[in-house]
Design a protein that fits this description.
The complex is a heterodimer of chains A (124) and B (406). Chain A contains four helices and five strands; from the N terminus they run βαβαβαββα. Chain A has 124 residues and is α/β, with parallel strands linked by helices. The longest helix of chain A has 16 residues, at 105-120. Chain A is globular, with a radius of gyration of 13 Å. Helix content of chain B is 20%, strand content 28%. Chain B is built from nine helices and 30 strands. The A-B interface holds A 65, 68-70, 72-73, 88-90, 92-93, 121, 123-124 and B 92-95, 109-110, 112-113, 205, 208-209, 212-213, 215-218.
Chain lengths: 124, 406
């Protein structure tokens, strides 16, 4: 079963991820900040990571950098309310950006895309 | 002219084929020409080009390089936003050392993020040449390029040693092969190729994007020449810049002193009557760390007993005393002592070497502070020398640092 790690400090959003992504057939792992996310990343070895950028303790940029250091190919989807982060090339190591929304249609699409691409082994 | 330029100098080269000169130091820290280190030539190019914002990326046996930079290159003014920073491989991204040239930039991407220069000049710390990078930058801007690669014309026969670029009429790069056997020649020539000098100017954003992409590419060796540039050709504006040599001799001078024999040859060129590489051009000064030392001196002129202190066709650095011995066509680094009745020919003696009474040295490289005992002979008996020392194909003899001779 494909495993998705979701990292966000908004707990209501985490619950939403859990529900909707499980419904799609993914195994969902949750974390409430970058530090916890990084620990779960190492322990659970997810296939894809969905992560917020602005979080307490450890922000998404730092966590992204650390994750890429452990596994350069890990696809990370940044899920943020601030599209200007796209200009920050510290975030360019991410696979995709999705602007935050309670409608998860776009996010689900991206997760599917990213996982399919990875299966094919092509250039992201 | 844009002014936000940041130089990133890759100074982590191991220089394996220069062993044992690289036994205790990185290749950029290998002494050259009596008083210089190889890195001085690249840094002097920066200085002479007015580029004073420099990051040196180091990783391998960097102590002597660090010391040299602190002693000799601590000349920039931070108040004017000038600097030369030493950045060791920090393993900030992952646990790896630099996997390749592009990975060295990738692992330091936060440096680019902080600084956000318009252009990044990427240089190698182990080449010897004179180049005005400002002219290359002007060319880069004129071509509206994403990346400009400095090239030098080379004989086709040397293609297996270099990255070879294929260009169109406009000098836009349309092909890039690493060490090909059947290289593409310059349009209009059958015997000349364009070789990659390892000098790159990137627009910062493109650089960041491309090294991040490369970092995620499975199977990549994370090298500019092998991976990043070939991937960019075709999708980005990549141009070749024909190197204009500030050395101003007939043939352009650019050397990757990769082997002991190449090192020896390039060094011996310096003591020729009209060397290919001119150290004495006041328009292109080469800076280094030079300690405050007394002047070189020769003593004794007892011609009858042949106790004569003399040097012929040689470079003799400060602090040397040639006391009753003779030196021919050699390079003496600072503080070398030559004792009576000894003879040194066609050799490179590094700092603090002492040649004992009556010793004879022929075609040798003697590393720092080695003492040659009285009467000892080096370079006269190839079989004996090969047993004790390093002898590369040309037959020169190399004594590594720390060698003790009875």
């Amino acid at each position: 079963m494909e495993k998705v790690l979701c990292i966000d400090d908004d707990l209501s959003l985490l619950r939403l991820y859990q529900e909707e992504l499980a419904e799609e057939g993914y195994k969902v792992v949750l974390a409430k900040d970058g530090k916890e996310g990084l620990a779960k990343f190492e322990k659970e070895k997810p296939h894809v990571v969905v992560m917020d950028i602005r979080m307490p303790v450890m922000d998404g940029i730092e966590a992204l950098t650390a994750m890429l250091g452990k596994d350069r190919q890990i696809p990370v989807i940044l899920n943020t309310a601030y599209p200007q982060y796209k200009e920050n090339f510290m975030t360019w190591g991410a696979e995709a950006y999705v602007v935050k929304s309670s409608d998860l249609t776009e996010l689900k699409q991206k997760i599917r895309e990213v996982l399919d691409k990875r299966k094919k082994g092509g250039r992201p | 002219m844009v002014d936000r330029i940041l130089a990133m100098v890759l100074a982590g080269g191991k220089g394996e084929r220069l062993y044992p000169l690289t036994q205790d130091r990185a290749k950029p820290a290998v002494p050259f020409g009596g008083i210089y280190r190889i890195i001085d030539f690249t840094l002097s190019n920066c200085l002479n080009s007015g580029i004073r914002r420099i990051n040196l990326l180091t990783q391998y046996k960097s102590l002597s390089l660090n010391r040299h930079i602190f002693q000799g290159w601590n000349i920039f003014n931070p108040q004017l936003d000038e600097f030369v920073n030493l950045i060791p491989a920090q393993q900030r991204v992952g646990e790896d050392w630099y996997l390749g040239t592009a990975d060295a930039i990738y692992q330091n991407i936060y440096v680019l993020q902080q600084d956000r220069p318009d252009l990044i000049l990427i240089l190698s710390g182990d080449h010897i040449y004179k180049m005005n990078y400002r002219e290359m930058i002007a060319y880069h801007l004129e071509k509206n390029a994403d990346l400009t690669v400095a090239v030098i014309e080379m004989d086709k026969g040397l293609s297996r040693q270099f990255g070879v670029l294929q260009v169109d009429e406009e000098f836009r790069i349309i092909g890039f092969e690493e060490k090909p056997g059947e290289p593409k020649t310059i349009p209009g020539y059958t015997d000349l190729i364009l070789a990659n000098m390892g000098v790159y100017i990137f627009n910062t954003e493109i650089l960041a994007r491309r090294v991040i992409e490369d970092a995620k590419e499975p199977g990549s060796q994370h090298d500019f020449g092998k991976n990043v540039i070939p991937a960019m050709v075709g999708q980005d504006r990549v141009f070749a810049y024909s190197f204009r040599d500030e050395n101003r001799k007939q043939a352009k001078y650019w050397r990757d002193i990769g082997t002991l024999d190449a090192y020896y040859e390039a060094s011996m060129d310096l003591v020729a009557v009209d060397p290919l590489f001119n150290l004495y051009d006041s328009n292109w000064p080469i800076r280094t760390y030079y300690p405050s030392l007394p002047p070189a001196k020769t003593v004794f002129e007892e011609y009858g007993s042949n106790r004569v202190g003399a040097s012929y066709s040689s470079i003799v650095s400060s602090g040397c005393i040639i006391s009753g011995g003779k030196v021919y066509r050699s390079i003496l680094s600072p503080n070398v002592r030559i004792h009576s009745y000894s003879e040194v020919r066609d050799s490179i003696l590094m700092e603090g070497v002492e040649v004992g009474r009556g010793a004879r040295i022929n075609r040798a490289i003697i590393d720092k502070r080695i003492r040659i005992p009285a009467g000892y002979q080096i370079g006269f008996n190839p079989e004996e020398d090969a047993k004790k020392f390093t002898v590369p194909p040309s037959g020169i003899v190399v004594l590594s640092k720390g060698t003790m001779l009875a």
